[in-house]
Structures are given as structure tokens and as C-alpha cells.
């Protein structure tokens, strides 16, 4: 019920106009390293906080409740005044939250002037799905304390759940790409693997892309280390998925998504079907 109210309030009519000059959206899916990247960008002087403002499940709803806006534009203006430190409105969102909250392109065009998009993705889609299963299993999503102990999953990897996550992530990747093509958006694509390899370089690339010469800042978030057990589980799952040629996974996001990445190029998995969301 609270979620419904959140969305209905955002969808209401409005006469307000943006009080910001430009918009930066981090277009994400789950487990792509966006938390540490966005934190470093924010700490460079861009914002005191960059949030998933259209996420009705936690952060977005909390911020919405604190700001008490009258409509979508008022919400963005108040968020801008509260958290931004330059003339840019900066936030992150997954595909579904964005198009559910602001479904019409003409309204998005009005709300998001001078838009630039940073698309965060992961080359190894299976490892991404495994990471999502691991986070759900341990309830550890992000780590800011360098000394914090990271619990291990209490059960063996759930192949069916990981496979379903892989399908759903591939489906979301597909829809981000459709939106970019349909609305002629040319995003800066940042791979999780590149964030992990050189955090400063990817942060600098984002700052340059949005037109900021701010000095680099260090994030307080650290990567959750991949254990030998994680690597073994991912390799076993990869072999199992590659053997299941009768299902729809290769058609949905391509064989490259099932293979261990060997390079650092910009190619990333592309879904091939638009016949509705995967089951699971």
C-alpha cells in the first residue's frame, strides 16, 4: 500500500520546473559495483549523497517520506536542494524503478534536462547472478568497514535461483539497451570488472564524462572478496548452464554471458528476446 502511494504521488500532475541545470543517471542492475563507484563520485564534491530515489522498497521511499514533496518535479527539486553540491541532479536507478515511476518519455525529458547516463554493467552475467544469490543468502550487500567480517552462505548454491536471477538480469540489460536505442541515449558504459581493476580510473572517467574536474576521492566501500569456494561454485554453475542447450538462456543473453571474460573490452551481453519477463 505504501509503495502504491509512493508511485501515485510521483505520477501526479505538476507545474514545477527543474531548478537544476543538468541530470546524471547511473543506470544499473544489481551487483555491478555501482555503490562504491557512486560513493567515490559523490565524495569528489558532487553530492553529499547519491541515492536510488525511485526505489520504493527502501531508500527511495525513505527519502520521499523525509522530503514530503507534492509531485515528481517537486521531489527532484527537493532532493537536489538537500543532497546535491553542484548544478547537476545525480541519482541512480534500475530500469524497472525508473520506467515505473516516470513511464512517459516526454515527462522524463522535462524532468531530466541535459541528461547524461552512466550505464553500469557486468561482463560476467553468471558471476553477477551468483553475487546476487550470495548477497540474499548472507544479507550482506555492501561493506563500508574495512575490518568487518564477511559471513559465508549457510547453504550450498541454489542453482535454480541463480539461473532465474541470470535470466532476470539479462532481461533487464536488454531493456536498458532498448531504452538507450529508442531514446538515442549514448551512455558511458562502465563494467564491474573495470571498477574492480582500477577504481580511480573508472571514477575519473565518470567525472570527465559529466564535465567535472573535481579531484578524486576515495570510497569507504570495499569489494566483497571472492573466495575459492565462490570461484569453484561459479565454474560449476557455468559448466551446468553451458550444458543445458535446450533452455532459452543462450537466446536471451548470448553465449558470451556464460563464458568467463578473458579481456577488458566494452562488449557486454545483449539479450535477444522481448517476449516477456522470464519465469522465476
Can you offer a commentary on this structure?
There is one protein chain. This protein has 280 residues and is of the alpha/beta class. It is built from 12 helices and 4 strands, in the order H-E-H-H-H-E-H-H-E-H-H-E-H-H-H-H. The protein has a 4-stranded parallel sheet, with helices on both faces. It is globular and about 55 Å long.
Proportion of residues in extended strands: 5-15%
Helix content: 40-55%
Number of helices: 12
Q: Indicate the overall shape.
A: globular
Work out the radius of gyration.
Answer: 19 Å
Biggest sheet statistics: 4 strands, parallel
Mean pLDDT: 80
H and E string = HEHHHEHHEHHEHHHH
Low-confidence stretches: 249-258, 260-280
| Oligomeric organization of the protein chains | single chain
Output the structural class.
alpha/beta
Biggest sheet: strand arrangement? 2-1-3-4
Spatial separation of the terminal alpha carbons = 24 Å
| DSSP E strands, number | 4
Write the layout of secondary structure elements.
Elements: H1 2-11, E1 22-28, H2 34-46, H3 59-67, H4 72-83, E2 88-94, H5 95-101, H6 105-111, E3 115-121, H7 125-138, H8 159-182, E4 188-191, H9 192-197, H10 199-209, H11 228-243, H12 249-253
Brief digest:
The protein is of the alpha/beta class and 280 residues long. It is 48% helix and 9% strand. The two termini are 24 Å apart.
